[in-house]
């Protein structure tokens, strides 16, 4: 049987050992006599699972003590509303740096609750570059400045944390969290849907500085109120218990790999060799500026568009699945998150070379 390498952008592949362990523990978790799927979320045994996951997350990302870690529902899209509802306070304006589809969607949602100031936009260049800091127009009256650390669809990633001075910095890190070290103390809030680097779809992590709690608008739904969730250990309502458990298994796996610093070096190698293969080719191309190419999502095009269908069919036959680009842009995309082994990237590169030899 051909080995499968899943290059899907999300829900994405999970580490094989994590899936195997989940399978082994599915019917009876550590002698409890029941599955995690059946556990009461406030039971002593489940509370221990949840607390360990939070502790491992705090350790891996070196989260300071004055930040709360919340495990919520609604995905990053839910946070597009939750962030302004919780952080605007008595201010009427927010600020967004637009670098692709997801930052645009976040800004559009924030517009429901007040004025949105655009710090800068890369739309004129089809979101293939991040606007240079000297082009940014910060507004001191904004409640916060939001940016998307990695644009999953477009393949644009910030290589440094933006400098916004004394303003509160907020980031959507859904597709690159835990793939590189991050100085959490630079942020007021970080949020991330789990289904790319930290677990299955259905659970969302929010890291919020404590002094930002207590500002929620009165219309904020209780499940999206950070203060209420923080005061209830993310269990104001029944949380996605199994997803939280799976997230915990992934965190344990990350620690076994040597932590985030070790994974960053692996991610650098994987992305560098794939970009190098694309750049050497006369058939494939990548449109993203060199300074902001994503380590997580590598979009590419084929010069002869008539070969696109053949490329997808042949790649699937070789066990390389989910290489099609997002429906909004087409082309191709290889998502190479933490769980993608380096051998998977090597197999993809070899396939691309052989395909070009035959048809290029």
Automatic annotation (TrEMBL):
Molecular function per GO: O-phospho-L-serine:2-oxoglutarate aminotransferase activity; pyridoxal phosphate binding
Q: Name one GO biological process term.
A: L-serine biosynthetic process
- Kindly indicate whether the keyword Cytoplasm belongs to this entry: yes
A Pfam family hit: Aminotran_5
Example GO CC term: the record gives: cytoplasm
Q: What CDD domains does the entry give?
A: PSAT_like (cd00611)
Q: What does this protein do?
A: Catalyzes the reversible conversion of 3-phosphohydroxypyruvate to phosphoserine and of 3-hydroxy-2-oxo-4-phosphonooxybutanoate to phosphohydroxythreonine.
User: What family, per the record?
Assistant: Belongs to the class-V pyridoxal-phosphate-dependent aminotransferase family. SerC subfamily.
From the Swiss-Prot or TrEMBL record, give the protein name.
Phosphoserine aminotransferase
The organism named in the record is: Candidatus Methylospira mobilis
Which lineage is the organism of this entry classified under, starting from the top rank?
Bacteria, Pseudomonadati, Pseudomonadota, Gammaproteobacteria, Methylococcales
């Amino acid at each position: 049987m051909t080995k499968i390498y899943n290059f899907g952008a999300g829900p994405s592949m999970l580490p094989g050992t994590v899936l195997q362990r989940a399978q082994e523990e599915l019917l009876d978790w550590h002698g409890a006599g029941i599955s995690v799927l059946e556990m009461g979320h406030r039971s002593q045994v489940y509370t221990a699972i949840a607390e360990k996951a939070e502790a491992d997350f705090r350790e891996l990302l070196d989260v300071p003590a004055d930040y709360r870690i919340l495990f919520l529902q609604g995905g990053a899209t839910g946070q597009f509303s939750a962030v302004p509802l919780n952080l605007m306070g008595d201010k009427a304006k927010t600020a967004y740096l637009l670098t692709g589809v997801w930052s645009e969607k976040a800004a559009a949602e924030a517009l429901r609750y007040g004025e949105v100031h655009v710090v800068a936009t890369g739309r004129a260049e089809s979101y293939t570059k991040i606007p240079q800091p000297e082009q940014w127009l910060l507004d001191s009256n904004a409640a916060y400045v939001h940016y998307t650390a990695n644009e999953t669809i477009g393949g644009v990633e910030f290589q440094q944390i933006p400098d916004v001075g004394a303003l509160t910095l907020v980031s959507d890190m859904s597709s690159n969290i835990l793939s590189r070290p991050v100085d959490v103390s630079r942020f007021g809030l970080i949020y991330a849907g789990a289904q790319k680097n930290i677990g299955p779809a259905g659970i969302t992590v929010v890291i919020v500085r404590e002094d930002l709690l207590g500002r929620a608008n009165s219309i904020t739904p209780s499940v999206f109120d950070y203060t209420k969730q923080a005061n209830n250990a993310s269990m104001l309502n029944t949380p996605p218990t199994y997803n939280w458990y799976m997230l915990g298994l992934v965190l344990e796996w990350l620690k076994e790999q040597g932590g985030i610093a070790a994974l960053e070096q692996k991610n650098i190698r994987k992305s560098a060799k794939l970009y190098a293969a694309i750049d050497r080719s006369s058939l494939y191309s990548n449109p993203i500026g060199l300074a902001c190419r994503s380590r997580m999502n590598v979009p590419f095009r084929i010069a002869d568009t008539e070969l696109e269908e053949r490329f997808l069919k042949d790649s699937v036959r070789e066990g390389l699945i989910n290489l099609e680009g997002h429906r909004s842009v087409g082309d191709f995309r290889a998502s190479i998150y933490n769980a993608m082994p380096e051998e998977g990237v090597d197999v993809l590169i070899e396939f691309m070379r052989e395909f070009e030899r035959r048809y290029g």
